[in-house]
Design goal:
By secondary structure, this protein is an alpha/beta fold. About 45% of the residues lie in helices and about 15% in strands. The chain has twelve helices and ten strands. The strands form three sheets. The chain has a six-stranded parallel beta sheet with strand order 6-5-2-7-8-9, sandwiched between helices. It has a two-stranded antiparallel sheet with strand order 1-10. Helix 6 runs parallel beside helix 12 and helix 9 crosses helix 10. The longest helix has 14 residues. The protein is globular, with a radius of gyration of 18 Å.
């Protein structure tokens, strides 16, 4: 028979939480949909009919790009345009309910919080607001569409946290793939526009339906050692 568990181990399950921004902290999905036709016309890729949106939610980022007919070389210029436009309209974007409390509680529990996003840092700071932004220790913004793994590793080095004590939390398949490449756990959020089936197919460590669940999982009750 296995020996009884040892004493309770206080403290959070992870020392570092790396958040994505759009679709994870910021409820920007409707805004992106509102500019989709303009982007398609401006950069000459396929328009998305409203009837196609649901099926596209179930595809990976690479599959969506291929379906829309967007050449890879165009992605940086599209990103610059979108981020510039968002900067002008940042007042239209809100955080998901509970995000502010989540970050407050994580910091209060001794967890280091980082942000890795393809969006511009100025946009993220404007939408988060100064109080929340001040609590984020590491910022890696302007990531290329498939360049997050390198930035996760950079955050690990700068925070001096071992990979097994870090988790990334995002709403896209590329976030989960990047976490795997960086050797850290991944959490998939489905409180926005993310498709549960597409994300769970990549076997994240955990799936979250609401911000409060992140706190329960990362901090949680005291655990025991063997």
């Amino acid at each position: 028979m296995k020996a009884a568990s040892g004493p309770a181990v206080p403290g959070p399950r992870y020392r570092l939480v790396i958040f994505d921004f759009d679709g994870t902290l910021a409820d920007s999905g409707d805004w992106f949909l509102s500019i989709a036709d303009d982007l398609a016309d401006r950069f000459r890729f396929r328009r998305v009919d409203p009837s196609e949106v649901e099926s596209l939610r179930g595809q990976t980022t690479r599959e969506v790009i291929k379906y829309l007919g967007i050449p890879r070389w165009r992605l940086p210029s599209i990103a610059r345009y979108v981020h510039g436009l968002l900067g002008e309209q940042a007042d239209q974007i809100r955080l998901f309910d509970g995000v502010g409390v989540l970050i407050d509680e994580l910091i209060g529990s001794g967890v280091t919080v980082a942000l890795v996003t393809s969006n511009a840092e100025s946009n993220a700071r404007a939408i988060l607001g100064p109080a929340i932004a001040a609590q984020i220790s590491h910022w890696e913004c302007g990531a290329s569409l498939f360049g997050k793994a390198r930035l996760y590793k950079r955050v690990l080095r700068r925070s001096k946290v071992a990979p097994e004590r870090a988790i990334s939390i995002g709403d896209e398949t590329r976030d989960l793939i990047a976490a795997r490449k960086a050797g850290i756990d991944s959490g998939a959020v489905v409180w926005g526009y993310a498709n549960r089936e597409a994300l769970t197919a990549l076997e994240p460590k955990v799936v979250f339906d609401a911000p409060a669940q992140v706190l329960d999982y990362v901090v949680g009750p005291s655990r025991t050692t063997d």
